[in-house]
Specification:
This protein is mainly α. Helix content is about 50%, strand content about 10%.
Length: about 200
């Protein structure tokens, strides 16, 4: 497996997907509770297959580290910590398989899913910190969500960790609040809009 060093957009997306499997994001339900779920996550992202319970524990620790970096995006700390994630994992090589040569890291043949995820998270965090800035590390704007994400969109205006889920919930809640305000004698308050989001569930 190779991770192209300038493909930080993909790498940051994998890091975002990883941190948003945590129980705190899903109101207590961990999306990586066992080896089978980790294997599905690894397959989805073309990572080495996890084979040991220790892989699961190591991925959980990496998830906490990545979330902490997103939550506290200090430039110097991001660079130091993300560099540590990429250290001693594989050898840097020149990938000439595409129309232009790019620097890449080839994972060792015996690399684990944790090795691959550490490298990917490190590349994503370093690439975004350097190319887009630390303001791209954000908390989800949905009032009932505790998710976090790395915004790699061109305009940099992403607001939700999972736009198709959190964004839709907010839109539905706002729609319900507007509809209720046209039927009720008094205008709907912002607090009622938040309550409407909570009614939609996790």
């Amino acid at each position: 497996m190779q991770v192209v060093l300038d493909d930080y957009v993909w790498a940051a997306g994998v890091a975002t997907d990883l941190v948003n499997t945590a129980a705190e994001v899903w109101h207590g339900e961990d999306k990586l509770p066992d080896l089978a779920s980790l294997a599905a996550f690894a397959e989805l992202h073309s990572l080495p297959e996890p084979t040991r319970r220790s892989d699961l524990r190591a991925v959980h620790r990496l998830r906490v580290t990545a979330r902490d970096l997103i939550d506290h995006p200090d430039q110097a700390c991001l660079i130091t910590a993300a560099t540590a994630l990429t250290a001693s994992i594989g050898g840097v090589t020149l990938d000439t398989s595409r129309d232009r040569a790019r620097w890449a890291v080839s994972l060792r043949p015996d690399a684990t899913v944790v090795d691959a995820l550490s490298l990917i998270c490190g590349v994503g965090i370093l690439g975004v910190a350097q190319s887009l800035g630390v303001e791209r590390f954000r908390a989800c704007a949905a009032p009932t969500c505790r998710g976090a994400f790395i915004d790699t969109t061109r305009p940099g205006r992403r607001r939700y960790c999972m736009p198709g889920l959190c964004g839709n919930r907010v839109n539905v809640a706002n729609h319900r609040a507007r509809r209720a305000s046209t039927q009720a004698p008094e205008p709907q308050s912002a607090a009622n809009a938040v309550a409407a989001v909570r009614e939609l569930g996790p």
